[in-house]
Design goal:
By secondary structure, this protein is an all-alpha fold. The chain is built from 8 helices and no strands.
Length: about 180
Amino acid sequence: MGLEKKKKKPFYKKWWVWLIAIILIVAVATSGENEDDKATNSTDGKETSAVNDTKNVNDTKNNEQTKEETTTKEPSVSREFSSALKKAKTYAKTMSMSKSAIYDQLVSEYGEQFPADAAQYAIDNLEFDWKTNALKKAKTYADSMDMSKNAIYDQLVSEHGEKFTPEEAQYAVDNLE
């Protein structure tokens, strides 16, 4: 009365079946590549040497182009500097931040934690219309917080706020609808 039969798993649910299947698939895939190599190697020696000569000429041309490109390009910057620049572009584009606010975010211990020289590189090489960003921020304050033009101006130039220049903030306030 007490003996129960243990149900067996179907064979395709056992781990070793899948291991064998993977090994077979890999073996078939690599044997197919080897047959292709044998077929190209078994052709006339003349064809093989012609292909090799063409490859050598192409390699030489590629090497010459690479040398020319490296001499004509500007010196590359470190990954840290290029990352800081990319992050600065993102802040300027998506969050309509000011130059000063972006710099502070890049170097902040609570923000991106870039070194000061990388953040300064990013700010120096970031081409953006800061007046447009100030206007976008001003519209946000006007629409969502119903602020007066004077209050918006103060928020835009505040060192605890958006940190736009007085010129950028004045442009924004003057162009509010």
